[in-house]
């Protein structure tokens, strides 16, 4: 009979078997390079392609352990080939990242959550660039295995074009190419492998009625302008290959309205008023459907029905679980509703059940703090 090993035992055996090729690690990690397959094998006695197939199946929570084996293993785990292999074979695991504001210190902080872990607790990400700590109106976005902090401004600081990047594999921050236009309180979305920074408020010398597009392959931004680009932005999502932006009340009308960016024609237009009428809170897209958390009177989840052009009430949430104002993020069929202190409620939209008129959900323990949640994003490795 073949013994069944716990995963921790398997990791231990791999580390022991591979001890002959251990290499010292530098105390401060530098940028990862692609692995050199002319070196000694990843795992003694195995071809590298087989070794990669084995190692890539190690759960994400153990990747830190893998990086401690040798410099070559570290470079492999931190490289693009590792991410590409896990994506190709449906091995990626998605974690949640939340940008918050510490109300006591009045500065931003960032937390991470592994939804699959048994403890399911939020963990603080350290090392946020000091220049960004006091800023407000920053963009917060993920692309590939990296997290981005963009722009922002302060009481005594005009809008900035600075962009910082957090490599989730290396767990290090770095500064990358600046925005084409300094801006704050803008829409920030990812579409077709690029980051879009749209509208908002600019510096005294910039034109905020524009949008910047970031290409991670060239580490460069391009800028385009249009008089229809909006400045007063409340929320944004990507749906059906288009960017939808919910705007605040205009000078002409007191009603909230929605504008849509069509990348094929590179044009902006107004969405139907019936869609705009029900978008009254943070939104997220699941399987092509738009969900909105209405926090105007309690908290209830709404869904935009494209065929009937109508908003449908999915259900209301218990006031004992949610701590508005909340932000939304989706992983597969689950919507995570994250409120003050990172109190988190999970809704399975494919299996919504109600008890006493309240949606049945699971919850994740919150922190002891009362931090406000600015934005939530997911990142898969």
Automatic annotation (TrEMBL):
Record's Gene3D superfamilies? Answer: Kelch-type beta propeller
UniProt-listed SUPFAM superfamilies = F-box domain, Kelch motif
| Record's keyword terms, sorted | Kelch repeat, Repeat
Please list the residue ranges annotated as the F-box domain.
46-86
Superkingdom of this entry's organism? Eukaryota
Q: Keyword Repeat, does the record have it?
A: yes
Signal peptide residues are: none
Q: What is this protein called?
A: F-box domain-containing protein
Q: Which organism is it from?
A: Nepenthes gracilis
